[in-house]
Design a protein that fits this description.
single chain; 93 residues; alpha+beta; Translation Initiation Factor IF3; 4-stranded mixed β-sheet; 3 helices
């Protein structure tokens, strides 16, 4: 029983949160972290948190998600996208 648990690889769901006005350097660091998680075989939940008046600007969360997805160089599969909070779940291929 213990050997089966050791051999069974656990794939966790990791979450990375972004704000809409993120600097390019900070974005690169978080994208590198996403790529590390994907190479280890974990699923990654990418969320854009909007506060206050940011919620009423149309497409602000989608713009940030597009910037993030365009910078990821590792092959990945987008399993879920959308929602009011702008969430994407990435899976390694």
């Amino acid at each position: 029983m213990k050997e089966q648990r050791r051999k069974n690889k656990q794939h966790e769901l990791k979450e990375i949160q972004f704000k809409p006005h993120i600097a390019d350097g900070d974005l690169k660091i978080k994208v590198n972290r996403i790529e590390e998680f994907l190479t280890k075989g974990h699923k990654v939940k990418v969320a854009v948190r909007l506060k206050g008046r940011e919620r009423y600007i149309a497409g602000l969360g989608a713009q940030v998600l597009d910037r993030v997805l365009s910078q990821i160089t590792i092959e990945h599969k987008v399993s879920k996208q959308g929602g009011p909070i702008s969430i994407v779940i990435l899976e390694p291929v």
